[in-house]
Structures are given as structure tokens and as C-alpha cells.
Write a structure and sequence with these properties.
heterodimer, A: about 375 residues, six-stranded parallel sheet, three-stranded antiparallel sheet, about 15% strand, elongated, B: six-stranded parallel sheet, about 35% helix
Chain lengths: ~375, ~425
């Protein structure tokens, strides 16, 4: 069976989370992806979370997730000539702007990913995921009214940056094959600007309305109510009610039909303005139900409620099991670790569902011998 | 590097029929349109993109409400827009003719909609053997939940991500009113490009599906992997970090003004001590700072409270300390960095006038890719598209208008 990105060579020379996630998508769909690592390995190899009971060198679950089906070459073990020859054979080189000279050897597409891009007032800032969400305006809306705003956890901005760079680099590799690109190109992705996709609509809206939406509290986002994560009898339910018909059905589900046809409550804004009346009623009623039962009943009636699964529950949900949403990364020593698989499916050319994770420089010798 | 407009567009020659609505699907196709693909957005006068409004009234129609939606206008630039009543056999037939000229179709309806219209991958394939259909249902197009509905908020909720955010005493905490939408849109663009590459190389089309919920798993990877690696779910710790202190959001001068400060190593800590002064002297190495986090945060807050956040951000960064002021939606448009990079591109749009448009987050050289046209009005390109691609003449168009298959004004739904 043909694999969609077969025949393409991608080299990651930096090994940040963003470059690694970008490269992972190439590897998942069949490109040959080479991690060109320093002798001590990419920085992702020392990132938490850590796997219990594994060797120190292979303990990072994050690295395992990001690195399935990639080759690893030890950069120091390759001579200058081999290194140059390798870079010149690449369709795409990924980097974080720290070794532009090496990256520039690629004759096709160079895609750099940096926190703020390589020009502008912040281009020399030390970046972080939290900063991207502070500056994109999202962080300001999370948390209690009195503050402080809450920082999203993990590596979310870098993942979004890596995904965005995949789009930018894929476009330009494809352009070459379509005959729309004849020269070498350098594409630079700003992780901060990638994260503006979540908030640009709000910024343009503020320009038009002069309305600055205040932080309304945990799980409360205008202009919609009810929206949020609410406790049920046995877990958490995610609620989003937008249209008049969804509101009427939601009232029937909770047996609060006296609110269903009230004119003010037919709009999201009207319900948000009436939150002091509606919130106690909705909370009380939700606690009488099981999250699972409410979820299915709502979906059967076209109201988009959701169970809010814990990390443990995620691995047992039939929907995700049937779609192979998690599959084992195989670490050195044949140790399996369940990791999320690529979220999009091409049915004629399916992706790899996880796969082996190379130790540092594992493929150096075989590469040197051709 | 010069203006990117003069180069051949990377996706020139690619045509996409865009049936998607809302945020996720249109963001996918916006990426394609920004890179030069001919994206033809298909709405109908009764079933127009719900991001124009999900609460349409006769007054809203009368007041050109359909053309005033910031949300719609922000994600649909660089596209052409036609209206077609797909419930009418002739409207459906015209759609199939358009599909016959295209590389791909994109849709993000809930599961049952396309089959009700007697449309779907196999139908599209009959008119174009190598067609790609990108479907973007919330939970994917297979599995027991394939027909379940969701908005961007539902997608975040169903991914479990809220369990990783916020304070332990609070409910699992969401990030955004529709976090899943934009993320789903990015994944859709990635998927479509991979399929286009396969189509170009082999002449084969295919069905492509993204699960918007599964698209959130990479963002929740740190929590998912912690459970997979240790059997323990991560605790919600608010702004506290296990590896950094100080680490948090601190108050600044102004109304609801804050700054994020994260001290990632000992050099940064020494720099911060020098800036803040004597009050931080009692604190030692990281373990000590984590143990006395509350007291430390209070002292940092005392220091930041009367400082202007932007100036403080530059001062801290100049001294090697990671920091960022928090923007509001409004202040984002005035951000000095984005201004210096020409990030907001201003275009005149019918009905609403001059509007800011966000650039792509990747660029070739120093300049952003140029946005060539603002979001289209409803049915703006009916004549152009139906004449050029289907070969219709004025008489055909008059007839289609007269029986309501095409049009330029929204109508209240008849059912």
C-alpha cells in the first residue's frame, strides 16, 4: 500500500517540541524523518512526564510520543562531508533558528519555528507556552473574576506551532511537486502568531464593538450560557447550549420546562444576562443525573453535551478505542507506552499508529554504511 | 525579501469546494485560499453559514446582518462564495458539476446531513474519480459517536483537557469559548495537504476524516502521557509549577492588568533578585522557593503591582527573565511586535468597511503573505463561478434566481 508522504526526507536539526511535533506528522504519514541529534540527545529526551522503570536515557514519555517512526543519527559521529551530503538530500529541514548555517544547506524547503518569529520587537525574547497565551489574550479570560488568570498547562503553544509549521512546510513541499515552486524557500513560523488563531476573531470583534469582555469566572465565556463543565451525580458533563431549539430541548432533559419558552432565554445573551436565575436551577438539576445518561440523551436529541473524561477514562472510551486514538510507542527494550495517534485519517493511505522510538544515534552506523 | 504577492502562489491550480460552516472547516479552507487555492464556498439563502448568525430574524436580514459577522468575515477571506439550494435537484446537480472540476470537497456537517442530500464520498467520486472528501465531524466519521454533535467548546470538554487546567478546588477548567474549533481547522488543513500530495503523485483521491476531539489530544498530551507512563493522573495546581518558582500571573498597574513571570533557572533567579531587591534575599534554591511559594508570590506581586505591564515585560526580558504582559482582545490589535511585523492587514469589506485581518503565522522572508480579498458577501460570485465553470448564460442565471436556487440575500427557513 502506498503511503501519502512516501519518498520525502525530512531532517529535524533542533529537536524542540515544536519541530518534533511538526516532524512527527511527516513521519506518521510515511516520510523518512531523521532526528539529527547531538551526542547527548535532543532536549525532548529530558522532558517530563517520565516513564516509571525505564532507563534514564529513554525515560521521557513526551519524547517517545513525539519520536515514533523516526531515525536517529548522532550529529557528532558524522563527518562534515557526510553531514553536508545528508542535508543536501533533504526535501525539508526543520530548525529553531539556532543553527541557520546548517539549516541553509538544504536545497529545497527550510522551515524554522521560533517563539516570536525572526523579526519584530519580541524576536529576542525568551519564549514560553504561557507567554504565548498571555500575549494572545486567551489567558486573561481563564480563572476567577478576581484573578489571577490561570496559565494553561503543558506544551500546548508549541504543539500548535508545530502543527502550523507542518501546514506551512507541507504547502511549500507540495508547491514544488505542483510546479509552483522552482527555488529553495525559507519558511518561518512564529509560535505566538500560531496561537493567535484562537483569539483573532475576538480581537477583530473588539475593534468593531469597542466592547472588552471581562473575565467572568471559571468556565464562563461570553456570549453563551449555559456553557461549561458542571458536576453531575457521578462525574462531569460539558454543556453548550446555543440555539433556541437546543435551549428548549435542554430544559426538557432537565425537567425545567417552565424556562423553555421564556422569550428572554431564547438567546445566548439573554440567558447570560439571567445567569443568577438560571445557574442555581441548572446546577441543582444536573446533580440529579448521571453524566453518561445525560450525555447520550442529549446527543439523541441533537443537543451537544459531552462527558468530560478523566485521563484514565479516556483510555477506556469505546469511541476512541474503535478509532485507535491511542497506540503503543515502542521504546528501546521493547517497552510499550500508549500515546495519542495522529488525529486525522486518510483512508486510502492510513497513517502509522505509533511505532518504534529510536535511542540516540541508533541509526548512525547503518547510515554510514549506506 | 519582497512582497510575496508577486510569486506564483504555492497552491495555484488547486480547487476546493467548501461546504463547511462555522469556524473549524472555514479555517481549514482559509489556509488553502491564503496559499492560492481557488476555494469556492457554497452556502444557500436559507441555510447560510451559521457563523453569520444562529439566531437570524427578519430584522437581522433587513439590516444586512449576514454581512456584519466578524467571525464569518475573519475566516473566509480570499475565497469565492456562491449560493445553491442543495435540497433542490438542480442545485444539487450544479454542486456535482462543480465537484467535477475540483480537487477536494470539505464539509463539517453533523453525520446525517450529507446522506439526507444524497451526497457523500461515493457520489462525489462518481463525478470525479480522484476527488478528496475531507469530513470534519466532532468525533470522527467512524465509531459509535460518529453522528454526535459538538461545538468547539464541546470538543474541548470531550477531550478531557479541562482536567489538566485550573485550581484543584475548582471544576475541570476550560481554556476558551471554542478552543476545539481553531485547532480542528489547523488539523483539517494538515490532513487536506497530505491528501493533495497523494493525489498529485498517484492520481488517487480518498476519504479523509478528522476527529476534532482527537485533535485536542496532542494539546492534552502532557496529561495523557503522565497517566500512561505512571498510572497517576496529574493534579490541577493552578499556576504553581513543580519545576519553576516564581511561576505565575502577577498583578500590574491598570484595570485587570497582569504579567506572566516564569523563572526557569538559577541565572534568571539571580537576575530577578537584583531587579526586585532586598525582599527576595531570604529565598534560596528552587526547592526552598517552591516550599515557600505563597510568600514568594506575594512579594513578587507587591513589586509588580504598581508597574505598567508592557514596560515591565521589556525590563524583565532585557534582564533575561521570561515574562509577558497579558493582552485583552482589544489591546492585541495594538501589540507593538505584531505592528512591527505587519501582522494585521487592513482590507475594505462591503457593508462593514475597513477591517483588520490576521496574517498567516508562517511567512517567507520578513513580510507576511498578502491577503488579496476580504470575505465574500453571500452569493457574491454566483454569476462568475456558474458562468466560468459550468458555462451558464444570463438566462440560466435569471431562471435560477427566480426559483430561489441562487440569490444574494438570506431568507428565513421555510420549515
Amino acid at each position: 500500500m502506498s503511503i501519502a508522504l512516501q519518498g520525502l526526507r525530512v531532517i529535524d536539526i533542533s529537536g524542540t517540541i515544536a519541530t518534533s511535533y511538526c516532524a512527527k506528522l511527516w513521519a506518521d504519514y510515511g516520510a523518512e524523518v531523521i532526528n539529527l541529534e547531538p551526542a547527548e540527545g535532543f532536549q525532548t529526551r529530558i522532558l517530563p512526564p517520565f516513564i516509571l522503570g525505564t532507563d534514564e536515557a529513554d525515560k521521557s514519555a513526551m519524547h517517545a510520543y513525539l519520536s515514533t517512526n523516526k531515525l536517529s543519527l548522532n550529529k557528532q559521529a558524522l563527518g562534515q562531508e557526510s553531514l553536508a551530503s545528508l542535508l543536501k538530500s533533504a526535501d525539508l529541514v526543520l530548525d529553531d533558528n539556532t543553527d541557520a548555517e546548517l539549516a541553509s544547506l538544504c536545497p529545497n524547503v527550510r522551515a524554522s519555528i521560533s517563539w516570536y518569529g525572526n523579526t519584530g520587537e519580541y524576536s529576542n525574547f525568551i519564549g514560553s507556552d504561557a507567554q504565548c497565551f498571555a500575549l494572545n489574550g486567551m489567558l486573561r479570560g481563564i480563572g476567577h473574576v478576581e484573578g489571577p488568570p490561570l496559565i494553561p498547562t503543558g506544551y500546548q503553544a508549541q504543539i500548535v506551532g508545530g502543527l502550523t509549521s507542518f501546514i506551512g512546510s507541507m504547502v511549500h513541499v507540495l508547491a514544488g511537486e505542483l510546479g509552483n515552486r522552482h527555488d529553495r524557500v525559507e519558511i518561518d513560523t512564529s509560535i505566538f502568531e500560531a496561537c493567535l488563531c484562537f483569539t483573532d476573531v475576538g480581537a477583530v470583534s473588539s475593534y468593531n464593538t469597542n466592547i472588552q469582555v471581562p473575565r467572568l469566572g471559571i468556565n464562563r465565556f461570553p456570549p453563551t450560557y449555559p456553557l461549561g463543565v458542571f458536576p453531575c451525580r457521578d462525574g462531569w458533563i460539558g454543556v453548550t447550549v446555543l440555539t433556541p431549539s437546543q435551549w428548549q430541548t435542554f430544559c426538557q432533559l432537565l425537567d425545567i420546562v417552565e424556562y423553555a419558552d421564556v422569550e428572554l432565554f431564547q438567546t445566548a445573551i439573554g440567558r447570560l444576562q439571567s445567569i443568577d436565575i438560571l445557574e442555581p436551577v441548572i446546577r441543582k438539576k444536573l446533580l440529579e443525573h448521571s453524566a453518561e445518561e445525560l450525555f447520550y440523551r442529549a446527543q439523541e436529541n441533537a443537543v451537544p453535551l459531552a462527558r468530560v473524561p478523566t485521563m484514565e477514562e479516556l483510555f477506556g472510551i469505546d469511541q476512541f478505542l474503535q478509532r485507535h486514538a491511542f497506540a503503543p510507542a515502542i521504546l528501546p527494550g521493547d517497552i510499550p507506552l500508549l500515546v495519542p495517534t495522529v488525529p486525522f485519517r486518510l483512508y486510502r493511505t492510513p497513517p502509522s499508529f505509533a511505532g518504534p522510538v529510536a535511542s540516540v544515534g541508533e541509526h548512525t552506523e547503518s547510515f554510514q554504511h549506506g | 525579501m519582497g512582497n510575496v504577492k508577486e510569486r506564483t502562489a504555492p497552491l495555484e491550480g488547486i480547487r476546493i469546494i467548501d461546504l463547511s460552516m462555522g469556524w473549524a472547516g472555514p479555517l481549514t479552507t482559509r489556509h488553502m485560499a491564503d496559499m492560492g487555492a481557488d476555494v469556492i464556498k457554497v452556502e444557500s439563502c436559507e441555510r447560510f453559514d451559521w457563523w453569520r448568525s444562529w439566531e437570524a430574524t427578519p430584522e437581522w436580514i433587513e439590516n444586512d446582518g449576514a454581512e456584519k459577522s466578524v467571525a464569518f468575515n475573519t475566516v473566509n477571506r480570499n475565497k469565492r462564495d456562491i449560493t445553491l439550494d442543495l435540497e433542490h435537484p438542480e442545485g444539487r446537480q450544479i454542486l456535482l458539476q462543480l465537484v467535477g472540476s475540483a480537487n477536494a470537497v470539505v464539509e463539517n456537517f453533523s453525520g446525517g446531513v450529507l446522506p439526507k442530500l444524497n451526497l457523500g464520498y461515493e457520489v462525489f467520486r462518481e463525478v470525479k474519480n480522484d476527488i478528496i472528501l475531507l469530513s470534519m465531524p466532532a468525533f470522527g466519521s467512524t465509531g459509535p459517536w460518529k453522528n454526535f454533535r459538538a461545538y468547539g467548546s464541546t470538543v474541548e470538554q470531550a477531550s478531557g483537557l479541562p482536567h489538566l487546567n485550573g485550581e484543584a478546588a475548582d471544576p475541570p477548567t476550560m481554556h476558551h469559548v471554542a478552543y476545539g474549533d481553531a485547532n480542528g481547522g489547523l488539523n483539517g488543513a494538515a490532513a487536506l495537504l497530505v491528501a493533495l500530495r497523494h493525489q498529485k503523485r498517484t492520481g488517487e483521491g480518498q476519504l479523509v476524516d478528522i476527529s476534532q476531539v482527537e485533535s485536542m489530544f496532542p494539546l492534552a498530551a502532557h496529561g495523557i502521557l503522565e497517566f500512561a507512563a505512571t498510572g497517576e493522573a496529574p493534579a490541577r495546581r493552578g499556576n504553581a509549577s513543580q519545576t519553576m518558582a516564581p511561576h505565575g500571573t502577577y498583578p500590574c498597574e491598570g484595570d485587570d492588568a497582569w504579567i506572566v513571570i516564569q523563572v526557569m533557572n538559577e541565572d534568571q533567579w539571580v537576575s530577578l533578585q537584583q531587579l526586585v531587591g532586598n525582599s527576595l534575599e531570604p529565598f534560596g534554591a528552587l526547592a526552598d522557593r517552591i516550599e515557600n511559594r505563597d510568600q514568594l508570590d506575594q512579594l513578587i506581586s507587591d513589586w509588580t503591582r504598581n508597574q505598567e505591564p508592557q514596560q515591565l515585560m521589556f525590563l524583565l526580558q532585557k534582564n533575561g527573565i521570561p515574562a509577558a504582559a497579558t493582552h485583552t482582545s482589544a489591546s492585541l490589535l495594538a501589540d507593538v511586535h505584531l505592528k512591527s511585523r505587519g501582522y494585521w492587514q487592513w482590507l475594505d469589506r462591503a457593508v462593514v468597511g475597513k477591517q483588520p485581518n490576521p496574517s498567516l503565522a508562517y511567512r517567507q522572508g520578513t513580510e507576511p503573505f498578502v491577503i488579496t480579498s476580504p470575505a465574500p458577501t453571500l452569493g457574491q460570485h454566483n454569476e462568475e463561478v456558474l458562468a466560468d465553470i459550468i458555462g451558464m448564460d444570463e438566462a440560466d442565471l435569471v431562471r435560477l434566481r427566480s426559483i430561489g436556487i441562487i440569490g444574494n440575500r438570506p431568507r428565513m427557513r421555510s420549515v
